[in-house]
Amino acid sequence: MAKLTFLGSTRNIGRAGFFIEHNDESMLVDYGVQFGNPPTFPDMIPIDGLQGVALTHSHLDHSGGLPLVIKKDKGISLFCTPASRDLTILLLRDMIKISRGRLPYDSKDVTKVRRQCQATPYEHTVPLGRHFEMTLFNAGHVPGSAMVSARVDGKRVLFTGDFNATESQLTPGARVNLPKHDVVVTESTYAQRINPSREEIEQSLMDATIETLERGGTVLIPAFAVGRSQEIMCILEKYNLPRKYPIYVDGMARKVNEILVRHPEYLQSPQAFSRAVSRAHEIRDNRDRNRAINDGGVIISPAGMLKGGASHVYFKRLHDDPRNSIILVSFQIPGTPGAELLATKTVEVGRKRFDVKADVQQFHLSSHSDSKGMLKMLTNIPGDPEFYLVHGEPESCDALKESLEKVGRKATVPERNETFEI
Ligand SMILES: [Zn+2]
């Protein structure tokens, strides 16, 4: 019998890690970081017998601990899509830069991750040791994101990672016709939310943008560098933002654009993406930033919840003109400047408090399925699998458990480091 251990992201979001053992062999799926001071990682696994590490996607809550495992032994391979590999390396290097020596690994270890990576396209089955094999399926969350399907001891286990069954302007939706599985380990991030249709959100976002520009204002869109910034660029392209309004892209999003242009197979429309990239002006330094602020237009800049990065530079210059707009395009975690701004229109940025006169709006472009999409996708997986629910606040995990049980499915919310026989 195989054993499955939940190393993290149990009843919360952060430091994902799942470990399957069978006889003397094992495989690991994801090994992420939990941000905090200091950042924390899943407990270390026994490396003897580890046949490989599969990665669902590049986000650091799934990938941020990989160097710790890979550096243990020179023979360990990492399996993920080529897009996830390049995005993960970019994010790991950025985290090292930001952490200034407070991480238990360095850039040499990240180089090793890259070297040990065996890029694996969707739908290809890879044998791992004598007992395991593994296949990646499109998860629709960010470009290159995958669900990991592992086969061991006659059983098939699916790790959904983060998934979105709905297509966006950037990414095709997750593969829906999945093969039979016996066990499904699923995220539950938005198990309590219903999202409006993507078209509705896109249209409202465009209306707010055009309105701001027409009254002579500038639009600041603080956005995550991986995925969301590119999706905004694609939306502006799709709805034909008039050419007289420039679009600026700041921060790591530029490097992400370069990576995605190299991996067009993970994009909804490579042509539309290329058009969007060639239209946007890249911001490289403070001189460019000043020019963008003076000229006006749409400025897309990290960080997504106004937590830092160049978005602070723009915020400080744009916040006190009521013609300008600050448009938030993702869920704002309580306690972040973005959430505070939405709730009160005053916000502390860089240890200073600002009263904001600019218009503030939120259009939630989720890269996760909502409760309806999630349930539909999960209950469509053939084989009447047993579900394990992770990657969500405790209430979300419990809500999904209730929904699955209501339709006669077996669902468990595991605790950290709990092991199950599968
Ligand atoms: Zn993610």
Topology:
Elements: E1 3-8, E2 17-22, E3 25-31, E4 50-54, H1 60-63, H2 66-70, E5 78-80, H3 82-99, H4 107-115, E6 117-119, E7 125-128, E8 132-138, E9 146-152, E10 155-159, E11 183-187, H5 198-214, E12 219-222, H6 228-238, E13 247-249, H7 253-262, H8 270-279, E14 281-282, H9 286-295, E15 298-301, H10 311-318, E16 325-328, H11 337-344, E17 346-349, E18 352-355, E19 359-362, H12 371-379, E20 386-390, H13 394-406, E21 411-412, E22 419-421
Parallel strand pairs: 3-4, 4-5, 5-6, 10-11, 11-20, 12-15, 12-16, 13-14, 13-15, 16-19, 20-21
Antiparallel strand pairs: 1-2, 1-22, 2-3, 7-8, 8-9, 9-10, 17-18
Helix pairs in contact: 3-4, 3-7, 6-8
The structure holds zinc ion (ZN).
In short:
The protein is α/β, with parallel strands linked by helices and 422 residues long. It is 31% helix and 23% strand. Strands 6-5-4-3-2-1-22 form a 7-stranded mixed beta sheet. The protein has a 7-stranded mixed beta sheet with strand order 7-8-9-10-11-20-21, with helices on one face.
